[in-house]
């Protein structure tokens, strides 16, 4: 076999089977996770590759967020007011949990021997592998010390539903949750969690864990998977802001158009 052909095959295999380590994330930065009734909460938009101490990584463009919604403690959708390209405001009118979600516009990218192209397999020549991406974020505000409606649903296909009142979690405790995909528990789903300001060390090793229970090691302070019922317990060893990262890549239904979905969803919380 000639070297150019070997190179082409190697390139295609790399494109198909590699997982981008630096994929962008979207996350929500409420200025107050436990607001008083009657207050107005500023909710910032985070975008980038890392979760620094200031909770902002890269500039958020004016058209970055396609939609942001909030569900109040009675299950009703309530409006947010955009105050800046990277900041929204939510009026807190009653005690209970406010579930806030945001997303960028979904789309397709296709890998070819010449690299990544924007579009599906019908649009891109010499397609090797196509991905339909969905990048979303979620946060829950606990107003007035009441966790009513904590487990409210959302319009997210892949979502994390807290089982533990975040306001009751202390450093050294655990945050229990269920991961759902299309409203059904998702078993063996990978999760990562990182606190604001975490800087990975090159010498960190990677450890395995029992499903449903978190551990330290690898590139994030916590890396784990859900159990058979879609449940997970995440150890939080310090106070402050935490970012939980979900990922799921199921098959796309029409392989003539695309090969797989890619859901990257984050959930943020504050440990007091």
Helix count from the secondary structure assignment: 1
Element pattern in H and E: HEEEEEEEEEEEEEEEEEE
Q: What general form does the structure show?
A: globular
Rg is 20 Å
Largest sheet: 10 strands, mixed
Question: How much is the average pLDDT?
Answer: 88
Number of domains: 1
- Which regions are unreliable across 5 or more consecutive residues at pLDDT < 50? 1-22, 204-210, 213-217
What does this structure look like?
- It is built from 1 helix and 18 strands.
- By secondary structure, the protein is mainly beta.
- The chain has one domain.
- Strands 3, 4, 7, 8, 9, 10, 14, 15, 17 and 18 form a 10-stranded mixed sheet that branches. A 4-stranded antiparallel sheet has the order 1-2-6-5, with no helix packed on it. Strands 11, 12, 13 and 16 form a 4-stranded antiparallel sheet that branches.
- The model is unreliable at 1-22, 204-210 and 213-217 (pLDDT under 50).
